[in-house]
Design goal:
This is Zincin. The chain is globular and about 55 Å long. It has two domains: about 180 residues, Elastase, domain 1 (Roll), CATH 3.10.170; about 170 residues, Neutral Protease, domain 2 (Orthogonal Bundle), CATH 1.10.390. It has about 375 residues and is an alpha+beta fold. Strand 11 and strand 12 form a beta hairpin. It is built from ten helices and twelve strands. The strands form four sheets. Strands 2-7-8-6-4-5 form a six-stranded mixed sheet, covered by helices on one side. It has a two-stranded antiparallel ribbon with strand order 1-3.
Length: about 375
């Protein structure tokens, strides 16, 4: 006998690079023509992927056996075309005793980044793959030519190689891999809709756990960490001198709005407070922009707890993601209220106070919880 499980809602593919950044490069007269063309192409292809990979499937996304089954990782090479998933070049299971390395350096680095992320999920959060039942994971390398992005489509993770001018190889960056895998976790837990505040929360959760996983891998305390996402993604581009020219990273949890500032790349436009919330129809309602607000809230909570971020702050955010009160259309206030309640339940009233103060720091009102949650 078999049963099937699926995400909570029709999936919208999630991306790592925000469209505003790509648009700025594509229209910058200072950018090389190759980079402008790559950015324009990536924007067009992103739109196509959002429509084609978001189409409902006639088969279950996952078939669950009643007997335990191992987690399988499969890495495919698209050879710079758009046929998915591409040619299988590496596969392994959690029970495999075969070597986990290949003659392909990018494949080896991606495999390492995937296993780091999955080991964190298992050992720290007690989660078996993204669905908590050892979902088979498919990763696709070298998708199309000069693609400047990475995607979680609901079926696989797609990685571009970057343009070699502004963006380097996406699968070789741990932040990118962790970010996209966490979109899968969100899909199989709260199922947050990828639009407006719920979409910004989805982006924030992926940014948050990309930071957490990197800190865990490097054994950094909250005071030792750099609190940025996407460091190393810029392909060595230095930009102008001063003012963050060329970019420190893609996003900053500590100081949203400061990750990059450059004539070609544009300026990091993330707000760090509700007073700067951006109302827009672009980017599914500004999901990559307004995520700066919950990102900053998490940073403030983590610093408030101190020590290692995976001991308390990350556990609170993960348990909040599992809480049935966090529904697919969840907004900032609802998520904030549940987070405070979860923190108190896990670690006591003092922990709820830490989270409450962090949320106040970014202007998110924490109301008294009402079980019906009317008015949220």
């Amino acid at each position: 006998m078999q049963t099937t499980t699926s995400p909570k809602h029709h999936h919208h593919p999630c991306t790592f690079i925000q469209p505003q950044l790509l648009h700025h490069i594509s229209t910058s007269p200072s950018a090389p023509s190759q980079a402008r063309a790559a950015a324009t192409h990536t924007l067009t292809l992103t739109h196509e992927i959002h429509h084609t990979r978001a189409s409902p499937s006639t088969t279950p996304i996952l078939t669950l056996q009643l007997t335990p089954h191992p987690l399988t990782l499969a890495i495919h090479d698209c050879h710079h075309n758009r046929t998915l998933p591409g040619v299988l070049i590496h596969t392994t299971t959690t029970t495999s005793s075969s070597p986990s390395t290949t003659h392909h350096p990018t494949t080896n680095t991606l495999y390492t980044n995937l296993t780091i992320t999955l080991h964190f999920l298992s050992s720290i959060l007690g989660r078996k793959s993204i669905d908590n039942d050892n979902l088979h994971l498919t990763a696709c390398l070298h998708y199309d030519n000069h693609l400047c992005n990475a995607f979680w489509t609901g079926r696989e993770i797609i990685f571009g190689d970057g343009d070699g001018i502004y963006f380097s190889s996406f699968p070789e960056n741990l932040d990118v891999v962790a970010h996209e895998l966490m979109h899968g976790v969100t899909e199989y837990t709260a199922g947050l809709l990828y639009e407006g505040e719920s979409g910004a929360l989805s982006e924030s959760i992926s940014d948050v756990f990309a930071c957490v996983i990197t800190q865990w891998h490097l054994n950094q305390t909250v005071n030792e960490a750099d609190w940025v996402v996407g460091r190393g993604i810029w392909a060595g581009y230095k930009g102008k001198e001063g003012g963050g020219g060329g970019g420190v990273a893609l996003r900053s949890l500590k100081s949203p709005g400061t990750a990059y500032n450059d004539p070609v790349l544009g300026r990091d436009s993330q707000p760090d407070h509700m007073s700067g919330f951006v109302c827009t129809e672009e980017d599914n309602g500004g999901v990559h922009v307004n995520s700066g607000i919950p990102n900053r809230a998490f940073y403030c909570a983590a610093v408030g707890f101190g020590g290692w971020v995976w001991e308390k702050a990350a556990v609170v955010w993960y348990r909040t993601l599992l809480d049935p009160r966090v529904e697919p259309n969840c907004g900032f206030v609802r998520f904030a209220c549940v987070t405070v309640d979860v923190a108190e339940g896990l670690f006591g009233a003092w922990a709820g106070g830490v989270v409450r103060r962090a949320l106040m720091e970014v202007g998110v009102e924490v109301r008294d919880l009402v079980w019906t949650l009317e008015g949220f």
